[in-house]
User: Fold these one by one.
Assistant:
Number 1:
Amino acid sequence: MSNNEEHITTFKAIGHPVRNDILTVLKAGPMSAGDISKNFDLSNATISHHLSILREAGLVRERKDRNFVIYELNTSVFEEAIRWFKTFI
């Protein structure tokens, strides 16, 4: 995938209101999908769908912790986006 395609994927993922809100929730630190979903009036399946898109865009990472999948922000993608934005200044 080219850098432009990566940026488009990143910004599409960030641009959805629910995904943007999930990223905001994850600023507090790593948490399970169940804990994330407690912040929303949406089904677990819907939250899982949005987490998958965020993961595919590289914005979140996941890891197994016993019976749970823990999600956390991947700040390197945000840092890369900031570097890209700075090329326009």
Number 2:
Amino acid sequence: MDIRPTQLDELNELGSFLTEQGMPRTADYLHWKFWQAPDECEGAKSWVAVHDGRIVGHIGIIPTRIYPDKGHAPIPAGWFVDWMVQAELRSRGIGVFLLREAAAGGCLLTIQGSAETQRVLPQLGWSSGHGLQIYKLNVRADSFKPKRNRLTTLAAEAAWRLYFHPVHISAPRGWTLSDGDADWSRLETVMQRIEAGPRGTGSFFARSTKCLRWHFQAHPSLRYHLLLARDPSGPCGYAIWRRGQRDDGTPMGRLVDAALPADQAEGWSWLVSEAVSCMVQAGAAQIECLAGKESALARALLRNRFLARLPLPLWMSTSLPSADGRHHWQATFADSDIDSAARS
């Protein structure tokens, strides 16, 4: 078996391999993700495991920076994406070899929540210091389909009527929202406001206007929508969402990323409710979001009647400085990782 960087002429084969393993990817998408990232987003890497001339495994890294706490300089980091090993070969340690090769470059993070991840990383000395959670909101009763008897189904639908519907939260005084899709170039002003404000419990992966626009505005699928929030002082926050569908065809929405100054609790709840409203109008039957368990975003999701469904530990490599309980990760825009974890 050979583990090496992915070659451009292997992208079609790699896309087919990932798709067959339940992670749909195309050659064009992989080229965009790992070879076309601009400026501070560049540095994405991709490795494959090859056995008998065939690709049997893959791992990728998307670079980022993290802020350990206010007043500390950002730390170069990254997260793992598209980590996959051929199903019948997963007991042979190929995933571990891929991980070791990728981790050799420095301090890294991963939000992958598969059973293999949770088994392997502790053995390699990684620690799970922070909690992430997938939050779900069932907007329609037909999005909640328990595979049990009629009585259970009726009970589930009754629970949905009580708990699983959107709420309306009024805007804080003087706050407004962009009408429809906002101009992505206006993100610069928003990011300056957030950077200048208190971090507090808003510790987060570094973002920049250029990075956000590359991840979402320039994404090959073009499925992402931007909402901009304004308070009396000007643009102050954003929410990015997209439409999609589950494997059974149920239409869904995903709140991919959101940001506001950390001390704007009421603004967070209102911004989430407005994003939910947009996704409901777009036909979503179920809405998902990934957030840190004790973050401002998580509190806003709970107020909007989202329920915490799938826990995802935020694993940290041994080269990353240890963190204490004061750090609450806001969210991550590694959108594909939610799909991977949901299938595990």
Number 3:
Amino acid sequence: MGQPRSFNTFVSAIIAIFFCIILINSVGAANLASTETPEIFYQQIEVISDFFSIQNLTTGDGTQLSAYVINGPSQPLPEFQAEREASLLANSPDALLPNFPSYNWVFGCSAVSAAMIAAWHDRGEFTNIYTGPTNNGVMPLTDTVWSTWFDGKQNYPSNPLVASRNGLDGYGARGSIDDYWVASGSSSQDPYITGGWSEHTWGSSIGDYMKTSQSECNNSDGSTTFWFYSNSSDKLHCSAMLSSGVADKDGTYGRMLFYQARGYLVGDCYNQKTDNNSGGFTLANFKAEIDAGYPVLLNLEGHSVVAYGYSGSTIYIRDTWDSNPNNVYTMQWGGSYNGMKMISVSIVHPVIITGDHLLFLPAILK
């Protein structure tokens, strides 16, 4: 027998209140922020490699933050290719998110990683994430359904969920590529600035919200920035990014904005260093994310990947250099991949409330 209508209404109200609390404490919606911009004192950028830099700052209240600038290579580094091929999955997984998308590098590894996660949700119950004309409005498992394009130096795949482009997937105006892209690694001003035209309206591409490749945010072409506490293992929640004045420059905060723009609530939203990098995010935390149906965006020291399964301390990843969903690459938790060690996670949980119950994500294979 069903519950009485009054009981269902009561439960719905409790759930709604619960998620309002999450939004206030974990997300920190923009309209709750102070109208005053916090005073920030920047320090010089420390270049660790061609693909990774750190910038430190101190806010007016003394909080010390560090920006990890991830500028992953558009192709695997040749000296690590044999190691990469050897990492291909050979054994059955303990836990794996099934039918997980696989996209190749375009616009930036962090945006591609975030797009694979968004596509996973779109192929579940979050069906308003991709609404284009391809595949009956369901984001495909691979980007090979779209033709490649050439920027004058290199061929790239097309992926409208990562970055829009004039003529791509029914888009009939300038988009992300037209406005922001010059060439991989370029620090030149964006084309819309030098060309003197208006920036396109964001809506369907997650890379826009993450500020990937945007010169106005000091991101060279291909790079994205993520902020962390400098001297703490704690989570830097999106609400704290907002109050600290760095939200408009952070890739994780941008992921949250994208889901909100597509009509969804967001629960957990934070950056955290991993436990091998003086952080608090552990292998147990990672497994809990996967078991709950949430893929994890992992930042390496110069590259972003998506982890979507595990077997013991081995984790299964999409490395943004392969469009074949049958290829599963692996790395050890706390280890290195392509010569770059694991350093942090970007966590964003989109949420749907339907009637008097929560929407659970697709089940994992175990």
